[in-house]
Amino acid sequence: MAEINYQELLGEPDMPNLMRREIDKLAINGENPTWVGSKMILGNDAKVSLGRLVLPGESKLDELLRAEEKEKKKKNLYTKMVDGDGEVWELDFNYWPSLKRYVFKREWAKVLKKFGVEKGWIVQIWCFRSKQNKPCFGVNVSHPLN
């Protein structure tokens, strides 16, 4: 099944207020998060046992990462993720050459459990730089009917 380009269909959504407040605490002063894109959760993305999210193929992440981060992504780049409720998670972020996609791992299974995420839900992703100048993410998960 071909992946749907939700950016074209939906555009950039409003960021949840709790997420925005937490990002403002973590981000470099005055930096606005960059909209990365949306993705519908597919079967494997919703499996707690796999504990990973394959990010959209058409994302802007390559443009947002520095050269040394692109090198580290081949192994693991440790990053923070802020969810729609403002909770901060520690994630592994790397690149899977076989899929030509970026992937979130480690605490993603806990995010699935917290929100009860199922196949068909929508994930909205923003990227920002922490005060330590590391890439971090805002990720909102929502039921498609909300």
TrEMBL record:
It is found in: Nucleus. One of its GO terms (cellular component) is nucleus. Keywords: DNA-binding, Nucleus, Transcription, Transcription regulation. It comes from the Eukaryota. GO terms for molecular function: DNA binding. The keyword Ubl conjugation does not apply. This is Uncharacterized protein. It comes from Stephania cephalantha.
